[in-house]
Amino acid sequence: MQTIVGVLRGGPSREHEASLKSGAAMLAHLPDERFATRDIYINKNGEWHDRGRLITPERALRQIDVALIGLHGEYGENGEIQKLLARYGVPYAGSDAFGSYLAKHKLLAKTRAQEAGLLTPVYRYVENTAKSEAMAHEITRSLSQPVIVKPVGWGSSFGVSVIGGYAPVLTAIQHLFELGAQGVLVEEFIRGKEATVSVVEGLRGEKLYVPPPVEIVLPKGEFFSHKLKSSGEARQRFPGNFSRAASEELQRAARVMHRTLGLRHYSRSDFIVTPKGVYYLETNTLPEINAESLLAKSLESVGIRFPHFLEHLVKLALGK
Length: 320
Prior knowledge:
The chain has helices at 16-29, 57-62, 74-77, 80-87, 97-104, 106-115, 132-142, 166-178, 226-231, 244-260, 294-300, 306-318, and strands spanning 3-10, 35-42, 48-50, 53-55, 66-69, 123-126, 147-151, 161-163, 184-188, 193-201, 208-209, 214-217, 235-237, 266-274, 277-284. The protein is α+β, with helices and mostly antiparallel strands. The strands form three sheets. Strands 10, 11, 12, 13, 14 and 15 form a six-stranded antiparallel β-sheet that branches. Helix 1 (16-29) links the parallel strand 1 (3-10) and strand 2.
């Protein structure tokens, strides 16, 4: 008897298009001799569809055995979809609601990383727009310019900028609050090699399997990869051009963050490698999952094919 796998994709987040791509890849690559798939599409208004027909979330979820979450951005990573799946008793691959929320909240994740002994960029937290001017003055006085300005609580790179100087920093902070950010994180810009490291539970007999770190290689003259990754302008090296010591530290740090944030099944963390050490940046609990994604290609570089990884996720969700 085939297991019915519901693939949730779309959603009303800024990552709608990336989510469609991940979901389509899951639907196309799940082995059809073992699994029957249901394409559960959530449009930008939050309306659910099963095989093209409007449906209530409860009815859609009652018809599946297990769920793969192809949602990205705040809609998939704030823990709400995980709460919904738990409410209806649907097993799902990926982190639970609390772990997802912790990882998405950049300030909380950074605090957990520091408590675990990892290096992180020096930062300042702006609580609300009323404190924007005073904090912009303090930031330009105390942090080397340029700095990275990012919203707290958004699960993607949307709204992230690298800027320097009082007026640009103030404008970026105020703009994020205008867009609805609940807080703004401003951190020092660390120059070095950027790495992304995946963690998958239970692969190859390891509790936390970590493939070799991937190096993000930017075009000449560029120094910031958030937007370049998704646009395809950044290249990747599988594995990255890191020393053995740096690679081992990257793998260790990725495991540390997976455990420290209480994550499940799989995650992907980003770091900067410098002569002073490895700096933790952030963790993604729902990274893009398609045949060309960083996660899939890093696993493929060590002989783990994409369909096998998807099958493994279903088994993890079902506790097998």
